Amino acid sequence: MKSKKSTILIRKDNLRIVRFKSCNHIGFMYKNLLLNFNITGFQQFTESFQQLNFDRRAVSFPDGTTRMVMKTCRQEIQLCFQKDEFEMVREALQEAVVMLEVNQILYSEQEN
To answer: pTM higher than 0.90, yes or no?
Structure first.
């Protein structure tokens, strides 16, 4: 039987969070954004995201929408979310961390 090369941790609307077995990295794909993390980096990103407060950080944009801007490790790159997107991503990240833990338990039990 052929083994799968990836495991989908979360699939919601335009969001996918996937664990790639070959490199043990996590892919975060949302609309036209693709981020790649090692497991520790993904957990740190999720923790940072969970600590954000949309209402305190939100700003009005010229198109009349309110969005929260999130800095990244690169000064030139920032992430921007409307409130409904922010809440959906926040929930999905937390669910993905739980699914990652479940997968790690299952995979480690299969190897033993």
So the answer is: no
